[in-house]
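To fix ideas, we reproduce below a protein record of this kind.
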Amino acid sequence: MSILIVGGAGYIGSHVVKQLNEAGFATVVYDSLKKGHREAVVSIDFIQGDILDTHVLSQVFRKHQIEAVMHFAADSMVGESVGNPLAYFENNVAGTINLLKVMINFEIKRFVFSSTAAVYGEPEQIPIMEDNPTKPTNPYGESKLMIEQILSRCDEAYDLRYISLRYFNAAGADSSGILGEDHQPETHLIPLILQAASGQRENINIFGIDYPTTDGSCIRDYIHVTDLANAHILALQALIEGKTSNVYNLGNGKGYSVKQVIEATKKVIGHEIPTIETGRRLGDPSVLIASSAKAFHELNWKPELSDLETIISTAWQWHKNHPKGYAK
């Protein structure tokens, strides 16, 4: 039996594939390579295809004995989703519906979904709990919430069991150095800081220094990508063991401000980083921290690489060895 990883050439998906292989699972990667990287695929079986193409998807299920599906193939840039919502609803929602249709046709009923804490929108309490109101403030978060609602209906109608994992800021890189974070364009804080540290960009912007936090900058919950990958495998094992559908937050339960992340990066790399303090970005909450107590208790998941300097050190190692990302 094999696990199909849709979007397995992307940042998080590729790390999950590596962890699955090391855990003894056979993996099949399906990715359009529009944003993923062929060099990041560490599975023997790779098929290039789009989740909007049900014909190619069906061929994959027909050829391989798929036992379960993990889904990472979503567009995920908030600003882009605001400017082009139809593209996000088409790829994220319609694409997932296509994938679910093919799964149901082939009677595959285990599904691990890479969701996001963006489904909560502006949080009403910190830390955020799974039963908090879901009020996404952008099409990206809305598309993920729509998928979760569709999955709930599929569970009721087709007995398709799923686990949805909601998280904010994946960061870091695999300790082997063969996998890392390579987005075009890059929008995540830690790789942007590392680009400024290595001279690939002139500076790092600090958006807002007047938030009600200890140093005035936004606070976010960062989680190492390897810890995220392990959570996905635990979710898969829970479904294989017959557990019911569920939703879990994933985070460290501890937040770091933008300025703290910059200071920690200075300590890791050993020199100053040029910064510019500027105004707030529209829609940026002051603090976003997720409670992972439910995942701790029910999935037996615990982050092992939660220290901020560890997260930055692994990212820096990747960045130094791959200054142009996966490009040769």
